[in-house]
Amino acid sequence: MSEDVHTAAAASDPSGAEGRWTDLPWLVNADPDRVLGLPASGARLMAAVYRASLDVHRDAPPWVRRQLLALDAARYGDRELSARIAAVPVEDAGTEPWQVLWSTGARSDPHFRMNPSGHTGGVGAVATTFSNGRHVVVTGSKDRTVRVRDLETGRPVGGAMSDLNGRVWAVAAEVVDGRPCVVTAGDWAVLAWDLATRRQTGELPGINGEVWCLGTAVVQGRPCAFASDDDVSVRVWDLASGKQVGELTGHDDFLMAIDTLVIDDRPRAVGCMSGGKVWQWDLTTGQPVGEPLPGHDGEAWAVATAVVGGRPHAITAGHDATVRVWDLVTGREVGRLVGHEGTVSAVVTAVIGGELRVVTGGSDGTVCLWEPAARRQIGRELVFPAPVHALTVTPEGSLVVGFGSDVAVLSLRADPDATGP
Question: Which of 18, 65, 361, 370 lies 20 to 30 Å (CA to CA) from residue 192?
Fold first, then answer.
Protein backbone atom coordinates (compact mmCIF):
# COMPACT_ATOMS: atom_id res chain seq x y z
CA MET A 1 0.00 0.00 0.00
CA SER A 2 1.46 3.34 -1.02
CA GLU A 3 2.54 6.08 1.38
CA ASP A 4 0.17 8.48 -0.43
CA VAL A 5 -2.78 6.31 0.58
CA HIS A 6 -1.62 6.26 4.21
CA THR A 7 -1.07 10.02 4.18
CA ALA A 8 -4.54 10.64 2.79
CA ALA A 9 -6.06 8.34 5.37
CA ALA A 10 -4.29 10.11 8.20
CA ALA A 11 -5.20 13.56 6.84
CA SER A 12 -8.89 12.65 6.98
CA ASP A 13 -8.55 11.71 10.64
CA PRO A 14 -9.64 14.69 12.77
CA SER A 15 -7.46 13.53 15.67
CA GLY A 16 -4.32 14.27 13.62
CA ALA A 17 -0.99 12.48 14.02
CA GLU A 18 -2.04 10.67 17.18
CA GLY A 19 -4.97 9.22 15.23
CA ARG A 20 -2.54 7.17 13.15
CA TRP A 21 -2.37 4.74 16.06
CA THR A 22 -5.84 3.61 14.95
CA ASP A 23 -4.81 3.34 11.27
CA LEU A 24 -3.86 -0.34 11.25
CA PRO A 25 -2.74 -0.49 7.58
CA TRP A 26 -0.39 2.41 8.20
CA LEU A 27 1.00 0.87 11.41
CA VAL A 28 1.70 -2.43 9.68
CA ASN A 29 3.31 -0.91 6.58
CA ALA A 30 5.04 2.24 7.90
CA ASP A 31 8.65 2.57 8.96
CA PRO A 32 8.83 1.84 12.73
CA ASP A 33 10.88 4.96 13.43
CA ARG A 34 8.03 7.10 12.05
CA VAL A 35 5.50 5.22 14.14
CA LEU A 36 7.50 5.57 17.33
CA GLY A 37 7.78 9.32 16.79
CA LEU A 38 4.01 9.78 17.17
CA PRO A 39 2.35 10.71 20.47
CA ALA A 40 0.26 7.86 21.84
CA SER A 41 -1.44 9.16 24.98
CA GLY A 42 -4.86 8.29 23.54
CA ALA A 43 -3.86 4.92 22.14
CA ARG A 44 -1.76 3.34 24.84
CA LEU A 45 -2.90 -0.25 24.22
CA MET A 46 -1.98 -0.11 20.53
CA ALA A 47 1.33 1.49 21.42
CA ALA A 48 2.00 -1.29 23.92
CA VAL A 49 1.15 -3.91 21.29
CA TYR A 50 3.46 -2.21 18.79
CA ARG A 51 6.40 -2.12 21.19
CA ALA A 52 6.00 -5.64 22.59
CA SER A 53 8.09 -7.35 19.85
CA LEU A 54 9.70 -4.26 18.37
CA ASP A 55 13.17 -5.78 18.54
CA VAL A 56 11.99 -8.46 16.07
CA HIS A 57 9.69 -6.57 13.69
CA ARG A 58 11.63 -3.31 13.54
CA ASP A 59 13.83 -4.51 10.66
CA ALA A 60 11.34 -7.02 9.25
CA PRO A 61 9.07 -6.72 6.19
CA PRO A 62 5.43 -5.70 6.72
CA TRP A 63 4.08 -9.27 6.50
CA VAL A 64 6.22 -10.24 9.50
CA ARG A 65 5.17 -7.11 11.37
CA ARG A 66 1.53 -7.99 10.69
CA GLN A 67 2.01 -11.45 12.19
CA LEU A 68 3.78 -10.19 15.29
CA LEU A 69 1.35 -7.33 15.94
CA ALA A 70 -1.57 -9.77 15.67
CA LEU A 71 0.18 -12.13 18.08
CA ASP A 72 0.97 -9.36 20.57
CA ALA A 73 -2.59 -8.01 20.49
CA ALA A 74 -3.72 -11.49 21.53
CA ARG A 75 -1.04 -11.58 24.23
CA TYR A 76 -2.66 -8.44 25.66
CA GLY A 77 -6.03 -10.19 25.52
CA ASP A 78 -7.61 -8.28 22.60
CA ARG A 79 -8.62 -11.00 20.13
CA GLU A 80 -10.76 -8.60 18.07
CA LEU A 81 -7.81 -6.26 17.52
CA SER A 82 -5.63 -9.26 16.69
CA ALA A 83 -8.07 -10.38 14.00
CA ARG A 84 -8.27 -6.90 12.49
CA ILE A 85 -4.48 -6.62 12.32
CA ALA A 86 -4.21 -10.04 10.65
CA ALA A 87 -6.63 -8.85 7.94
CA VAL A 88 -4.57 -5.76 7.02
CA PRO A 89 -3.55 -5.76 3.32
CA VAL A 90 0.20 -6.05 2.70
CA GLU A 91 1.80 -5.57 -0.69
CA ASP A 92 3.09 -8.80 -2.28
CA ALA A 93 1.56 -10.89 0.53
CA GLY A 94 -1.89 -12.42 0.69
CA THR A 95 -4.24 -12.33 3.63
CA GLU A 96 -2.68 -13.96 6.69
CA PRO A 97 -4.12 -17.52 6.71
CA TRP A 98 -3.72 -18.01 10.47
CA GLN A 99 -5.57 -16.25 13.27
CA VAL A 100 -4.36 -16.20 16.86
CA LEU A 101 -6.98 -17.69 19.18
CA TRP A 102 -4.97 -16.71 22.22
CA SER A 103 -1.42 -16.28 23.43
CA THR A 104 0.39 -15.72 26.68
CA GLY A 105 2.98 -13.02 27.20
CA ALA A 106 5.65 -12.24 29.75
CA ARG A 107 6.55 -8.67 28.72
CA SER A 108 4.04 -5.98 29.65
CA ASP A 109 3.46 -2.26 29.36
CA PRO A 110 3.10 -0.54 32.78
CA HIS A 111 -0.51 0.40 31.90
CA PHE A 112 -1.66 -3.02 30.65
CA ARG A 113 -1.04 -6.60 31.63
CA MET A 114 -0.39 -9.40 29.18
CA ASN A 115 -2.03 -12.79 29.59
CA PRO A 116 0.60 -14.44 31.84
CA SER A 117 1.73 -17.97 31.03
CA GLY A 118 2.60 -18.74 34.63
CA HIS A 119 5.94 -20.13 33.46
CA THR A 120 9.18 -18.42 34.44
CA GLY A 121 11.37 -20.63 32.26
CA GLY A 122 11.34 -21.80 28.66
CA VAL A 123 8.45 -23.97 27.48
CA GLY A 124 10.05 -27.16 26.18
CA ALA A 125 7.01 -29.41 25.77
CA VAL A 126 3.35 -29.10 24.76
CA ALA A 127 0.55 -31.64 24.42
CA THR A 128 -3.23 -31.53 24.08
CA THR A 129 -5.83 -33.83 25.56
CA PHE A 130 -9.33 -33.87 27.05
CA SER A 131 -10.08 -33.46 30.74
CA ASN A 132 -13.45 -33.04 32.47
CA GLY A 133 -15.19 -32.48 29.16
CA ARG A 134 -12.88 -29.79 27.85
CA HIS A 135 -9.98 -29.73 25.39
CA VAL A 136 -6.83 -28.57 27.19
CA VAL A 137 -3.23 -27.62 26.45
CA VAL A 138 -0.55 -29.06 28.73
CA THR A 139 2.83 -27.27 28.87
CA GLY A 140 6.08 -28.29 30.54
CA SER A 141 8.85 -25.85 31.38
CA LYS A 142 12.39 -25.45 32.61
CA ASP A 143 10.86 -23.75 35.66
CA ARG A 144 9.97 -27.24 36.98
CA THR A 145 6.22 -26.88 36.49
CA VAL A 146 3.50 -28.27 34.22
CA ARG A 147 0.49 -26.05 33.54
CA VAL A 148 -2.90 -26.69 31.94
CA ARG A 149 -5.02 -24.23 29.92
CA ASP A 150 -8.34 -24.41 28.14
CA LEU A 151 -7.59 -24.84 24.44
CA GLU A 152 -10.38 -22.51 23.29
CA THR A 153 -10.00 -19.64 25.76
CA GLY A 154 -6.44 -19.93 27.08
CA ARG A 155 -7.66 -19.68 30.66
CA PRO A 156 -5.79 -21.71 33.30
CA VAL A 157 -7.47 -24.92 34.37
CA GLY A 158 -6.60 -25.72 37.96
CA GLY A 159 -3.23 -25.21 39.57
CA ALA A 160 0.22 -26.13 38.36
CA MET A 161 1.83 -29.53 38.78
CA SER A 162 5.01 -28.57 40.56
CA ASP A 163 6.53 -31.53 42.44
CA LEU A 164 8.52 -32.64 39.38
CA ASN A 165 12.10 -33.25 40.59
CA GLY A 166 13.64 -30.82 38.09
CA ARG A 167 13.17 -29.20 34.69
CA VAL A 168 10.49 -30.65 32.42
CA TRP A 169 11.72 -31.63 28.95
CA ALA A 170 8.77 -33.66 27.67
CA VAL A 171 5.07 -34.27 28.31
CA ALA A 172 2.70 -36.84 26.82
CA ALA A 173 -0.99 -37.54 27.25
CA GLU A 174 -2.63 -40.96 27.42
CA VAL A 175 -5.85 -42.51 28.67
CA VAL A 176 -5.24 -45.05 31.45
CA ASP A 177 -8.14 -47.09 32.85
CA GLY A 178 -10.55 -44.59 31.30
CA ARG A 179 -8.96 -41.53 32.93
CA PRO A 180 -6.82 -38.84 31.28
CA CYS A 181 -3.20 -39.24 32.29
CA VAL A 182 -0.19 -36.96 31.75
CA VAL A 183 3.35 -38.34 31.78
CA THR A 184 6.20 -35.90 32.42
CA ALA A 185 9.92 -36.38 31.82
CA GLY A 186 12.65 -34.22 33.26
CA ASP A 187 15.99 -34.06 34.97
CA TRP A 188 15.65 -36.98 37.33
CA ALA A 189 12.28 -38.68 36.92
CA VAL A 190 9.47 -39.84 34.67
CA LEU A 191 6.20 -39.25 36.50
CA ALA A 192 2.58 -40.20 35.81
CA TRP A 193 -0.27 -37.89 36.83
CA ASP A 194 -4.04 -38.10 36.95
CA LEU A 195 -4.93 -34.97 34.97
CA ALA A 196 -8.36 -34.51 36.52
CA THR A 197 -7.08 -34.48 40.11
CA ARG A 198 -3.52 -33.21 39.44
CA ARG A 199 -2.30 -36.00 41.70
CA GLN A 200 0.84 -37.97 40.97
CA THR A 201 -0.03 -41.61 40.42
CA GLY A 202 3.50 -42.93 40.35
CA GLU A 203 7.15 -42.54 39.46
CA LEU A 204 8.17 -44.89 36.68
CA PRO A 205 11.16 -46.95 37.87
CA GLY A 206 14.75 -47.10 36.64
CA ILE A 207 15.49 -43.41 35.92
CA ASN A 208 18.64 -41.91 37.46
CA GLY A 209 19.51 -38.99 35.17
CA GLU A 210 18.24 -36.48 32.62
CA VAL A 211 15.37 -37.59 30.36
CA TRP A 212 15.14 -35.59 27.13
CA CYS A 213 12.09 -37.11 25.48
CA LEU A 214 9.06 -39.29 26.00
CA GLY A 215 6.90 -41.51 23.84
CA THR A 216 3.60 -43.30 24.37
CA ALA A 217 1.74 -45.99 22.46
CA VAL A 218 -0.69 -48.85 22.96
CA VAL A 219 1.27 -52.13 22.84
CA GLN A 220 -0.65 -55.43 22.98
CA GLY A 221 -3.63 -53.59 24.41
CA ARG A 222 -1.68 -51.79 27.15
CA PRO A 223 -0.96 -48.02 27.26
CA CYS A 224 2.83 -47.77 27.50
CA ALA A 225 5.47 -45.05 27.86
CA PHE A 226 9.08 -45.05 26.58
CA ALA A 227 12.06 -42.99 27.74
CA SER A 228 15.75 -43.20 28.56
CA ASP A 229 18.24 -41.36 30.72
CA ASP A 230 22.03 -41.08 30.90
CA ASP A 231 22.61 -44.84 30.92
CA VAL A 232 21.20 -45.04 27.32
CA SER A 233 18.67 -47.78 28.19
CA VAL A 234 15.24 -47.11 26.64
CA ARG A 235 12.74 -48.44 29.14
CA VAL A 236 9.16 -49.46 28.42
CA TRP A 237 6.55 -49.05 31.19
CA ASP A 238 2.97 -50.21 31.49
CA LEU A 239 1.15 -47.03 32.57
CA ALA A 240 -1.67 -48.94 34.26
CA SER A 241 0.62 -50.86 36.60
CA GLY A 242 3.53 -48.40 36.66
CA LYS A 243 5.95 -51.29 36.11
CA GLN A 244 8.73 -51.66 33.59
CA VAL A 245 7.67 -54.31 31.08
CA GLY A 246 10.44 -54.13 28.51
CA GLU A 247 13.42 -52.36 26.99
CA LEU A 248 14.41 -51.22 23.50
CA THR A 249 17.85 -52.57 22.63
CA GLY A 250 20.73 -52.41 20.17
CA HIS A 251 21.81 -48.75 20.36
CA ASP A 252 24.76 -47.25 22.25
CA ASP A 253 23.93 -43.55 22.69
CA PHE A 254 21.24 -41.39 24.30
CA LEU A 255 17.68 -41.11 23.05
CA MET A 256 16.84 -37.49 22.16
CA ALA A 257 13.42 -37.86 20.46
CA ILE A 258 10.93 -40.64 19.80
CA ASP A 259 7.69 -41.17 17.88
CA THR A 260 5.57 -44.22 17.13
CA LEU A 261 3.53 -45.62 14.26
CA VAL A 262 2.06 -48.93 13.09
CA ILE A 263 3.66 -50.84 10.20
CA ASP A 264 2.18 -54.16 9.01
CA ASP A 265 -0.13 -54.20 12.06
CA ARG A 266 2.81 -54.01 14.48
CA PRO A 267 3.61 -50.97 16.66
CA ARG A 268 7.01 -49.48 15.91
CA ALA A 269 9.11 -46.71 17.48
CA VAL A 270 11.48 -44.40 15.63
CA GLY A 271 14.14 -42.73 17.78
CA CYS A 272 16.70 -39.97 17.23
CA MET A 273 19.95 -40.38 19.12
CA SER A 274 22.56 -38.07 20.60
CA GLY A 275 25.07 -39.18 17.97
CA GLY A 276 22.67 -38.26 15.17
CA LYS A 277 21.60 -41.76 14.08
CA VAL A 278 17.97 -42.80 13.66
CA TRP A 279 16.86 -46.18 15.01
CA GLN A 280 13.71 -48.25 14.55
CA TRP A 281 12.36 -50.78 17.06
CA ASP A 282 9.55 -53.31 17.06
CA LEU A 283 7.63 -52.35 20.21
CA THR A 284 6.27 -55.86 20.71
CA THR A 285 9.72 -57.45 20.96
CA GLY A 286 11.91 -54.44 21.81
CA GLN A 287 14.32 -55.47 19.04
CA PRO A 288 15.77 -53.07 16.46
CA VAL A 289 14.40 -53.19 12.92
CA GLY A 290 17.14 -53.09 10.30
CA GLU A 291 20.30 -51.05 10.52
CA PRO A 292 20.25 -47.53 12.01
CA LEU A 293 19.80 -44.70 9.53
CA PRO A 294 22.88 -42.46 9.20
CA GLY A 295 20.91 -39.48 10.51
CA HIS A 296 22.34 -36.05 11.29
CA ASP A 297 25.63 -34.30 11.93
CA GLY A 298 25.37 -33.94 15.69
CA GLU A 299 22.40 -34.38 18.00
CA ALA A 300 19.02 -35.14 16.43
CA TRP A 301 16.42 -33.26 18.45
CA ALA A 302 13.04 -34.13 16.94
CA VAL A 303 11.21 -36.85 15.02
CA ALA A 304 7.73 -37.37 13.62
CA THR A 305 6.24 -40.19 11.56
CA ALA A 306 3.64 -40.31 8.80
CA VAL A 307 2.43 -42.41 5.90
CA VAL A 308 3.35 -40.57 2.68
CA GLY A 309 2.27 -41.97 -0.65
CA GLY A 310 1.25 -45.20 1.07
CA ARG A 311 4.70 -45.74 2.62
CA PRO A 312 5.82 -45.15 6.22
CA HIS A 313 8.20 -42.20 6.60
CA ALA A 314 10.08 -40.47 9.40
CA ILE A 315 10.90 -36.77 9.47
CA THR A 316 13.85 -35.88 11.69
CA ALA A 317 15.53 -32.62 12.66
CA GLY A 318 18.48 -31.55 14.70
CA HIS A 319 21.35 -29.35 15.69
CA ASP A 320 22.71 -29.28 12.12
CA ALA A 321 19.70 -27.11 11.05
CA THR A 322 18.42 -29.77 8.64
CA VAL A 323 15.03 -31.48 8.39
CA ARG A 324 15.43 -34.89 6.74
CA VAL A 325 12.79 -37.20 5.28
CA TRP A 326 13.34 -40.99 5.46
CA ASP A 327 11.59 -43.88 3.76
CA LEU A 328 11.36 -46.41 6.59
CA VAL A 329 10.96 -49.36 4.21
CA THR A 330 14.17 -48.76 2.26
CA GLY A 331 16.02 -47.04 5.11
CA ARG A 332 17.08 -44.22 2.82
CA GLU A 333 16.92 -40.45 3.03
CA VAL A 334 14.52 -39.30 0.30
CA GLY A 335 14.63 -35.53 0.76
CA ARG A 336 15.27 -32.49 2.93
CA LEU A 337 13.06 -29.61 4.00
CA VAL A 338 15.20 -26.48 3.75
CA GLY A 339 14.15 -23.20 5.32
CA HIS A 340 15.19 -22.85 8.97
CA GLU A 341 18.29 -21.05 10.16
CA GLY A 342 19.70 -22.75 13.24
CA THR A 343 18.65 -25.75 15.30
CA VAL A 344 15.29 -27.30 14.43
CA SER A 345 13.94 -28.53 17.74
CA ALA A 346 10.31 -29.48 17.04
CA VAL A 347 8.63 -31.57 14.32
CA VAL A 348 5.07 -32.86 14.07
CA THR A 349 2.93 -34.36 11.29
CA ALA A 350 -0.79 -33.71 11.08
CA VAL A 351 -3.75 -33.16 8.78
CA ILE A 352 -4.27 -29.41 8.42
CA GLY A 353 -6.90 -27.99 6.09
CA GLY A 354 -7.61 -31.50 4.87
CA GLU A 355 -4.01 -32.17 3.77
CA LEU A 356 -1.09 -33.99 5.39
CA ARG A 357 1.50 -31.49 6.56
CA VAL A 358 4.84 -31.51 8.33
CA VAL A 359 5.18 -28.66 10.84
CA THR A 360 8.62 -27.62 12.12
CA GLY A 361 9.79 -25.10 14.69
CA GLY A 362 13.26 -23.88 15.53
CA SER A 363 15.65 -21.62 17.36
CA ASP A 364 15.21 -18.99 14.63
CA GLY A 365 11.75 -18.27 16.08
CA THR A 366 9.83 -19.59 13.09
CA VAL A 367 7.27 -22.31 12.40
CA CYS A 368 7.14 -23.71 8.85
CA LEU A 369 4.54 -25.90 7.14
CA TRP A 370 5.61 -28.39 4.48
CA GLU A 371 4.03 -30.68 1.93
CA PRO A 372 5.89 -33.95 2.65
CA ALA A 373 5.33 -35.65 -0.72
CA ALA A 374 6.69 -32.67 -2.71
CA ARG A 375 9.21 -31.64 0.00
CA ARG A 376 8.20 -28.00 -0.39
CA GLN A 377 7.24 -25.27 2.05
CA ILE A 378 3.58 -24.21 2.07
CA GLY A 379 3.05 -20.47 2.42
CA ARG A 380 5.19 -18.13 4.48
CA GLU A 381 6.66 -19.09 7.81
CA LEU A 382 5.05 -18.00 11.07
CA VAL A 383 7.34 -15.72 13.06
CA PHE A 384 7.53 -15.57 16.87
CA PRO A 385 9.49 -13.23 19.15
CA ALA A 386 11.43 -16.08 20.80
CA PRO A 387 12.83 -19.51 19.86
CA VAL A 388 10.25 -22.22 19.23
CA HIS A 389 11.15 -25.37 21.14
CA ALA A 390 7.78 -27.13 21.30
CA LEU A 391 4.71 -27.48 19.12
CA THR A 392 1.81 -29.76 18.40
CA VAL A 393 -1.32 -29.79 16.24
CA THR A 394 -4.84 -30.48 17.50
CA PRO A 395 -7.13 -32.98 15.74
CA GLU A 396 -8.98 -29.97 14.28
CA GLY A 397 -5.77 -28.62 12.74
CA SER A 398 -4.95 -25.78 15.15
CA LEU A 399 -1.30 -25.08 15.95
CA VAL A 400 -0.10 -25.01 19.56
CA VAL A 401 3.29 -23.31 19.75
CA GLY A 402 5.65 -22.97 22.72
CA PHE A 403 7.95 -19.97 22.20
CA GLY A 404 10.25 -18.72 24.93
CA SER A 405 8.28 -19.04 28.17
CA ASP A 406 4.95 -18.52 26.38
CA VAL A 407 2.40 -20.51 24.39
CA ALA A 408 0.02 -19.57 21.57
CA VAL A 409 -2.82 -21.32 19.74
CA LEU A 410 -3.49 -20.44 16.10
CA SER A 411 -6.23 -21.68 13.76
CA LEU A 412 -6.83 -21.39 10.03
CA ARG A 413 -8.99 -18.47 9.00
CA ALA A 414 -12.34 -19.27 7.45
CA ASP A 415 -12.00 -16.48 4.85
CA PRO A 416 -12.31 -17.95 1.36
CA ASP A 417 -9.65 -15.56 0.04
CA ALA A 418 -7.09 -16.39 2.73
CA THR A 419 -3.86 -18.00 1.56
CA GLY A 420 -4.00 -21.73 2.32
CA PRO A 421 -1.56 -23.61 4.57
Answer: 361
Written as tens digits, the pLDDT of the chain (421 aa) is 434 434 433 433 434 666 789 999 999 999 999 999 888 777 889 999 999 999 999 999 999 999 999 999 999 999 999 999 999 999 888 889 999 999 999 777 777 888 888 899 999 999 999 988 899 999 999 999 999 999 999 999 988 888 787 899 999 999 999 999 999 998 889 999 999 888 899 999 999 888 989 999 999 999 999 999 878 889 999 999 999 999 999 888 889 999 999 999 999 999 998 888 999 999 999 999 999 998 788 888 899 999 999 999 999 998 888 899 999 999 999 999 988 998 999 999 999 999 999 999 999 999 999 999 999 999 999 999 999 999 999 999 999 999 999 999 999 987 645 455 5
The Cα–Cα gap between 290 and 329 comes to 9
Distances 364 to 103, 121, 326, 354, 408 between C-alpha atoms, Å: 19, 18, 24, 28, 17
Helix or strand or coil: residue 133?
Answer: coil
Structural domain boundaries of the chain? Answer: 3-103, 123-412
Count CA atoms closer than 13 A to 261's CA, side-chain side: 19
175: Cβ–Cβ under 8 A, 6 or more apart, which residues? Answer: 181, 223
Q: What is the CATH number of domain 123-412?
A: 2.130.10.10
Give the HSE-up count for residue 331: Cα atoms under 13 Å, Cβ half-sphere: 11
Residue 415, CA distances (Å) to 100, 371, 377, 412, 419 in order: 14, 22, 21, 9, 9
Q: Are 380 and 93 in contact (CB under 8 A)?
A: yes
Residue 418 DSSP class: S
- Strand, coil or helix: what is 337? strand
Number of Cβ within 10 Å of residue 395's Cβ equals 9
